């Protein structure tokens, strides 16, 4: 994975938009749309691909959306809102 240290990261809401509109826009288009660097969007998508769908939404831990300022934490929070962990 590319080093994205000290780069602007997406918000949880932006990650949710990427999840929702993935088939509609390219990585480059998301980068322009959210004013983020292309490698940040690529890293976001890489983390999104690691999420797994939960079979029972009640099985999501209470702290699922407690997040730090790390991309993985932001993606997990967005995913947890949509039944992923």
The class by helix and strand makeup works out as: mainly alpha
- Mean pLDDT equals 85
> How do the SSEs run, as a string of H and E?
HHHH
Query: How many E-type strands?
Result: 0
Residues in helix, %: 40-55%
User: Gyration radius, to the nearest Å?
Assistant: 13 Å
Distance between the termini: 20 Å
**Beta fraction:** under 5%
Low-confidence runs of at least 5 consecutive residues: none
Number of helices: 4
Largest sheet: none
Which geometry do the CA atoms define? globular
How would you describe this protein?
By secondary structure, the chain is mainly α. The chain is built from four helices and no strands. The chain has helices at residues 12-21, 27-34, 38-50, 71-80. The longest helix is centred in the middle third of the chain and has 13 residues, at 38-50. The protein starts with 11 loop residues before the first helix and ends in a 5-residue tail after the last helix.
């Amino acid at each position: 994975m590319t080093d994205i240290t000290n780069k602007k990261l997406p918000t949880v809401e932006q990650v949710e938009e990427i999840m929702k509109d993935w088939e509609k826009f390219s990585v480059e288009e998301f980068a322009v749309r959210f004013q983020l660097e292309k490698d940040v969007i690529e890293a976001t998508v890489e983390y999104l691909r690691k999420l797994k769908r939960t079979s029972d939404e009640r099985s999501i831990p209470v702290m699922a959306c407690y997040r730090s300022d790390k991309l993985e934490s932001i993606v997990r929070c967005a995913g947890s809102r949509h039944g992923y962990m």
